[in-house]
Amino acid sequence: MYKIVKNVIESGDFKLADMQTKIDTLWVQGDLTDEQRTELLALMKENVKPESETPEALVMCKLLKAEFELLKERVSKLENGGVAPEPPVGVVIEPWEPWDGISDRYKYGAVVTIDQKYYISTYQGQNTWMPGSMGTEGLWKEISKEDAEAVVSGTKTPDQVINGQ
To answer: Is 118 helix (H, G, I), strand (E, B) or coil?
Structure first.
C-alpha cells in the first residue's frame, strides 16, 4: 500500500486533506510504519499542486477578474463622457540629476537616462554617483532603452535587467 500511496503523491494528483486522512488511516491500521508515514507526509508537502486543491476557486477567480476588467472599462468610459481614455503614449525615463542630499530616488533598481544612454542602479543603497563616469561601472549598469522602459513600466524587475534576463 505504501508504494501505491507514494506513486499517487509523486504524481501530484491528490487533495492535501484527503491524502493526509488516507495516510493517517493506513498508519493507525498498522499498514504504514512511523518512518513511512513521516516520509509520505513530507513528500506530500513537496508535491501538492495548488490547482488540485481548489480548482473551483481558481475558475471563480478568473471569472471575477474578467468581470472586474469589464466593469473597470465601463467606469472609465462613464468618467470620460462615454469615450475610452487614450492609453499612455510611452514610458518616461527620468534624466539623471546630481543628488540633492535629501532624496532617495537613486536606490537599487532606479532607472535614469544621461547623454542618450540608459542606466540602472546596481548599488544596494543611495547611489549618489553620476552614471557613466569613470569608476562607476559597479554602481550603474548601462542598459537598452527597451529594458529601461520595461523596468519603469513594471514589465521587468530590476533584478531581471541587472542579471541580463
So the answer is: strand
Q: In what order do the strands lie in the sheet with 140-143?
A: 111-114, 117-121, 140-143
Strand-pairing partners, residue 142, are 119
Distance CA 67, CA 114 (A): 43
3-state SS, residue 112? strand
- Whether 21 and 15 have beta carbons less than 8 Å apart is answered as no
Grid coordinates standing for 66?
Answer: 474578467
**Of 77, 56, 58, which is closest to residue 66 (Cα–Cα)?**
58
Kindly state the helix (H) or strand (E) to which residue 143 belongs, with its residue range: strand 140-143
Supply the pLDDT for residue 57. 63
Q: Which ranges of 80-118 does DSSP label H, i.e. alpha helix?
A: none
Residue 95 DSSP symbol? B
Tally the residues of the chain. 165
What is the per-residue DSSP string for 3-55?
HHHHHHHHHT-S-HHHHHHHHHHHHHTTSS-HHHHHHHHHHHHHH--HHHH-H
Q: Whole-angstrom Cα distance, residue 21 to residue 29?
A: 12
Residue range 70-114, pLDDT digits in tens: 888 788 777 777 665 555 567 889 999 988 778 788 899 999 999
